[in-house]
């Protein structure tokens, strides 16, 4: 990998710094920044070194930064970067870095970069920030079902120590931020220039990462390709604290979904995946590993995307094993075609389809939501159903074991300023299921699941939700 080094004082990060850092990042695969210590910078340091370092580390393009308490030539001799980048204004001056680079064949490059920094600077805020102030609790719903803040706090905090088995399709979501250049003169096509790429774990992977972030011991069972995305997923999920059971499948790549975005909106989505069922050999291996784990877990969550990881025979066997062990099972089956059938997960404790998925499964495109939910419940034998309604929130359809059975209710969307709705269903599924596993009822589960979804849609890309984020949205009593 080509390594790049930049050094400087960095008192206040300004557009010139951002242009230079972006240019340096495009020169190689890894950018390191040496921030001069207070001792080295002397009178040139107007801001303490720790704050200057923190500012540099906040920049998306910087892979590593450190406080440099030695001369830049000494740092170069130790790090031996492939390239050192300096501003254009230094090109006509004496550059001591050059002699140090020549000793091992490194290069010195001068550039001020291109003046397109603003889109990416704003991107970092879009990716990492959450519109927490736009989240509101469903107070009327909570009053109807006697749900107190203290009870929500107890259920959320009590998820610590749950043991959860998650199985389904692993997906890598890739967000490619682009600079719009205009329309092509040859054909009616929008022309963009890719600026920056962010990758996130999606599918069953993010469900497992959410579970770990909410305090559970999470085990993920899935199949992947033998490729670079397998390595990426392994590294990210391991850092998130997920116990991995990844079975390589030579017949498919790791599923990748690309989103090309500009000005906060998606221009194009491209999916790289295979949808054929996994082999009998892989099914047997997956079932064998799950069977060994079942006696040690409290909850099984199925996050299915109909990409072939969970053939019907395997699903039925897993649900049967879970029932024999008296385990709670929650399932979601996201479908982008007319072929999906969420009711194939028969007898689960919780089912969380979209309205469209429920109608496809029941072949019912005429009845109202309550009738639709009841028909799906009879068809799937599910105990409880949460129908996702997009910007209109969810419909809560309780099972016969619940109080107020037969009295459906709704929770509206709790975040009035969503940024990216792609991960809402995953966070709703795991937060609701974990609440049920903790002894909460369906009304409490739907409330906590909706709160988790509201936090998730307030930021770009799938980022694991943590217990403290949920608790932060609850007013102090």
The CATH architecture of the largest domain can be given as 3-Layer(aba) Sandwich
Pairing-aware structural class of the strands and helices? alpha/beta
Helix content: 25-40%
- Find the CATH topology of the largest domain: UDP-N-acetylmuramoyl-L-alanine:D-glutamate ligase
What does the model show?
The chain is α/β, with parallel strands linked by helices and 477 residues long. The protein folds into two domains: 3-115, HUPs (Rossmann fold, 3-Layer(aba) Sandwich), CATH 3.40.50; 123-472, Ribokinase (UDP-N-acetylmuramoyl-L-alanine:D-glutamate ligase). It is built from 17 helices and 18 strands. It has helices at residues 15-27, 38-41, 49-57, 72-79, 97-102, 117-128, 139-144, 149-157, 204-213, 228-239, 280-293, 312-324, 355-362, 369-380, 424-437, 442-456, 467-472, and strands spanning 3-8, 30-36, 64-68, 83-86, 107-110, 163-168, 170-183, 190-203, 217-224, 243-248, 255-262, 265-272, 299-304, 328-333, 350-351, 384-388, 394-397, 409-411. The strands form three sheets. A nine-stranded mixed β-sheet has the order 10-9-6-13-14-15-16-17-18, with helices on both faces. A five-stranded parallel β-sheet has the order 3-2-1-4-5, sandwiched between helices. A four-stranded mixed β-sheet has the order 8-7-11-12. A hairpin with a 2-residue loop joins strand 11 and strand 12. Helix 11 runs parallel beside helix 12, helix 13 packs across helix 14 (369-380) and helix 15 (424-437) packs antiparallel against helix 16 (442-456). The model is unreliable at 113-132 (pLDDT under 50).
């Amino acid at each position: 990998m080509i390594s790049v080094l930049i050094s400087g004082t960095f008192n206040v990060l300004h557009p010139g710094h951002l242009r230079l850092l972006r240019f340096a990042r495009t020169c190689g695969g890894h950018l390191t920044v040496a921030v001069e210590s207070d001792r080295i910078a002397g009178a040139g340091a107007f801001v303490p070194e720790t704050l200057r370092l923190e500012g540099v580390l906040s920049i998306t393009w910087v892979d590593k930064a450190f406080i440099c308490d030695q001369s830049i030539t000494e740092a170069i001799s130790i790090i031996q970067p492939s390239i050192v980048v300096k501003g254009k204004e230094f090109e006509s001056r004496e550059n001591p870095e050059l002699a140090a680079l020549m000793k091992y064949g490194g290069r010195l490059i001068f550039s001020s970069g291109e003046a397109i920094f603003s889109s990416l600077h704003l991107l970092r805020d879009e990716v990492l920030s959450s519109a927490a102030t736009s989240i509101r609790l469903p107070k009327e719903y909570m009053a109807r079902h006697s749900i107190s803040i203290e009870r929500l706090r107890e259920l959320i905090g009590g998820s610590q120590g749950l043991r959860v088995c998650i199985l389904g399709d692993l997906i890598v979501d890739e967000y490619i931020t682009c600079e719009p250049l205009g329309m092509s003169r040859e054909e009616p096509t929008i022309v963009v220039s890719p600026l920056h790429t962010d990758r996130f774990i999606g599918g069953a992977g993010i469900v497992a990462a959410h579970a770990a972030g909410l305090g559970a011991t999470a085990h993920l069972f899935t199949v992947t390709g033998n490729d670079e995305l397998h390595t990426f997923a392994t590294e990210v999920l391991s850092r998130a604290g997920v116990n991995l059971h990844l079975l390589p499948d030579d017949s498919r790549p790791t599923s990748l979904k690309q989103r090309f975005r500009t000005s906060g909106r998606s221009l194009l989505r491209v999916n790289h995946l295979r949808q054929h069922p996994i082999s009998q050999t892989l099914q047997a291996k997956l079932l064998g590993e799950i069977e060994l784990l079942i006696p040690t877990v409290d909850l099984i969550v199925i996050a299915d995307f109909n990409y072939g990881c969970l053939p019907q025979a395997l699903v039925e066997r897993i649900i049967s094993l879970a029932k024999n062990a008296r385990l709670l099972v929650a399932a979601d089956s996201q479908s982008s075609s007319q072929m999906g059938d969420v009711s194939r997960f028969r007898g689960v404790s919780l089912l969380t389809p979209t309205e469209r998925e429920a109608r496809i499964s029941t072949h019912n495109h005429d009845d109202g939501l309550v009738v639709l939910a009841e028909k799906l419940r009879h068809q799937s034998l599910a105990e409880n159903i949460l129908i996702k309604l997009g910007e209109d929130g969810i419909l809560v359809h309780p099972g016969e074991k619940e109080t107020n059975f037969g009295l459906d209710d709704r929770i509206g969307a709790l975040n009035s300023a969503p940024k990216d709705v792609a991960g809402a269903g995953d966070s709703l599924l795991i937060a609701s299921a974990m609440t049920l596993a903790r002894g909460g009822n369906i009304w409490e589960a739907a409330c906590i699941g909706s709160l988790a979804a509201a936090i998730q849609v307030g930021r770009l890309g799938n980022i694991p939700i943590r217990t403290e984020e949920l608790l932060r949205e609850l007013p102090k009593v």
